[in-house]
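Record LETM1 domain containing 1, 243 aa.
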Amino acid sequence: MALSRLCWARTALWGSAVTPRPYVTRRLQLVRAGRTWGPPWYLFPRQLLVRHFWTPKQQIDFLNIYHDIRKKSHPEILSYLEKVSPLISEKGLRWHMTELCTKIQRGTHPAIPDILALRKCFSKPPLGMSQLHASQIKALSRAMLLTTHLPSFLLRRRLKTHTTVIHQLDKALAKLGINQLTEQEVKSACYLRGLNSTHIADERCRTWLAEWLQISCSLKEAELSLLLHNVVLLSTNYIGTRR
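=>
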């Protein structure tokens, strides 16, 4: 099965021949079982109840409500990027950051090279994972559908761990191939990475996921703050997300 191969692919990437432990396997599951795909249950324990007791329409409404909460953080995150852009040392990168944020705010879906051109900015202050302001940490937590009711140092640590897991999963998924995933698995993978795939056709979801993987697999560990911000940069204006 696709997810079984993905699990072993991720193990190979980690350089281990040992069968992944149960909690690793659970994190790799893109909610294959059940009637719904939505965000993985380890993000929302209530998703277990939703999957078994809610109708398909109620499940979709549930996902839309949570994504509306997620989208409220998007303007805040983009505004923060614009605010700190003058602090970027290189003038060319500084201009590019401002230009990218302006385009996204005006409704343009960014090209992959435009995002990757900024990778250097996210590996050091002020946008490196260890240097992000507390307000940005909270906004990014909301964008990842994670609670913000924790001290800043714990939010930062959890975001770093969460982003690292997604990055490792991305590498394994790229090795396996998106074409090996079912439609439900693709939608779940997109939702986890910031795209509300509820009303988007399977082909469009696969295109978006391919863009995400291209960016993710190009990043080094020190640049994972960009992958975290990519939840907003890549999903805000994707076709079909504006209703």
